[in-house]
Design a protein that fits this description.
Layout: H1 3-20, E1 25-33, E2 38-39, E3 44-49, E4 55-61, E5 67-72, E6 78-84, E7 87-93, E8 102-104, E9 107-108, E10 114-126, E11 129-140, E12 147-148, E13 154-157, E14 163-170, E15 177-178, E16 181-183, E17 189-192, E18 199-210, E19 214-217, E20 225-233, E21 237-240, E22 247-248, E23 257-265, E24 273-276, H2 295-302
Parallel strand pairs: 1-8, 9-12, 10-20
Antiparallel strand pairs: 1-2, 1-5, 3-4, 3-6, 6-7, 10-11, 11-18, 13-17, 14-15, 14-18, 16-17, 19-24, 20-23, 21-24, 22-23
């Protein structure tokens, strides 16, 4: 091969390599402090490539104008992570999008505008073991908006002898991720060190108890709560220590569960009850205490949607605003306990689930934000 031919061949190979190499793109955005409404100058921003897992594609600092910029060489969706005062905040950048803005908040050890929108506890018992799932829907309405974070950020009680099996936490607009409930000095008291960002945070705690056919339970609320909901199999007997405390609400679409509700709970309010018998919950009722499966059901119990809730999630999805169950269409059968969820980073926005046409028809009344 002549020298000229070799040069021509190398030129062709080089040209093909350039053609097959993805063109670098620029991903930019702003990071704003939602507490002060000023640029979050100096905050660290991390680019995460989601095409092949959670690869870190680079890091930078927010400039004096609140801006950041990355040169992106990997195609596919990306996640922007901003770190402010030790707490992470995220924003998705889908393929083809070259701008992603992130809002962060100042951190406070204590936020007074903290309340529990719904506290849902589901029980079932079989073969000498009682299994429980407790869901907390926590609302942070601080103004100016701040994130609460400390070593025992959210505390709660479990019955004596309970063994924590699994804990999940879900930030506003985020996916459920694994968390840890740390035992405190007081017996039966636990704490979850997970940031309570402005908006709605959910915690789900799965636990087991030794069971001989009868047990006394005291929820021991530590925060003001709009609703406490107890879900049990219909084959189990529920007896409240104070009969007038709980209101029974039967679900016409479920033949194997009972629902007991208390409204406007105060911290320390006596809410003890006794459970007797055995039984397992299946089908739709099994999802009542599962935030990743039925988040809107808990919001409907509370009678108010949080600001991050999508409009037009119908009341026919579960509960009416006054807390009464409405007749339901048939749901696909679910696992008696929970569906496996993939761990996601704090605050990562959740992809909206496709509506079931049988549940949320277009001609149904829409729930507007209030």
């Amino acid at each position: 091969m002549t020298k000229l031919a070799k040069s021509a061949l190398l030129l062709i190979i080089f040209s093909l390599t350039l053609a097959l190499t993805p063109a670098a793109q620029t991903l930019t955005g702003t990071v704003t402090n939602g507490t002060t409404n000023k640029p979050a100058v100096g905050d660290e921003v991390i680019l995460i490539n989601l095409a092949n897992g959670m690869d870190v594609g680079g890091s930078t600092k927010v400039d004096s104008n609140g801006k950041y910029s990355f040169t992106v060489t990997v195609a596919g969706p990306h996640l922007i992570r901003a770190i402010h005062q030790g707490v992470t905040y995220h924003q998705m950048a889908p393929p083809g999008v070259n701008t992603a803005d992130v809002q962060v908040y100042d951190v406070a050890q204590k936020v007074t505008e903290l309340s529990v929108t719904a506290d849902v506890i589901r029980f079932q018992a079989d073969s000498g073991t009682m299994q429980g799932v407790r869901l907390f829907v926590v609302s942070n309405t601080s103004s100016p908006a701040k994130t609460q974070m400390n070593d025992h950020n959210f505390e709660f009680y479990l019955p004596a002898g309970a063994k924590v099996e699994q804990v999940q936490a879900r930030s506003p607009n985020g996916q459920p991720i694994a968390a840890e409930a740390a035992p405190q000095a007081e017996k039966g008291r636990y704490a979850i060190a997970f940031p309570l960002r402005p908006g709605e945070t959910q915690f789900q705690v799965e636990f087991t108890l030794p069971y001989t056919g009868e047990i006394k339970i005291d929820p021991k609320p530590l925060y003001p709560a709009a609703h406490l909901v107890i879900v049990t199999p219909k084959t189990m007997q529920f007896t409240a220590a104070t009969p007038t405390t709980y209101q029974s609400m039967q679900d016409p679409s479920s033949n194997d569960s009972n629902v007991e509700v208390v409204q406007q709970i105060k911290p320390g309010q006596p809410l003890a009850f006794t459970l007797r018998g055995q039984g397992v919950i299946t089908g739709r009722a099994a999802d009542l205490a599962c935030p990743s499966m039925r988040p809107m059901l808990c919001r409907n119990i509370a009678g108010r949607f949080s600001s991050d809730s999508p409009c037009c999630w119908r009341l026919e999805d579960g509960w009416s605003r006054n807390g009464n169950l409405r007749p339901q269409p048939e749901y696909p059968r679910q696992s008696p306990w929970h569906r496996a969820t993939r761990a996601q980073p704090h605050g990562q926005p959740q992809t909206p689930r496709q509506p079931r046409s049988a549940i949320r028809r277009r001609n149904h009344r829409c729930c507007s934000k209030r």
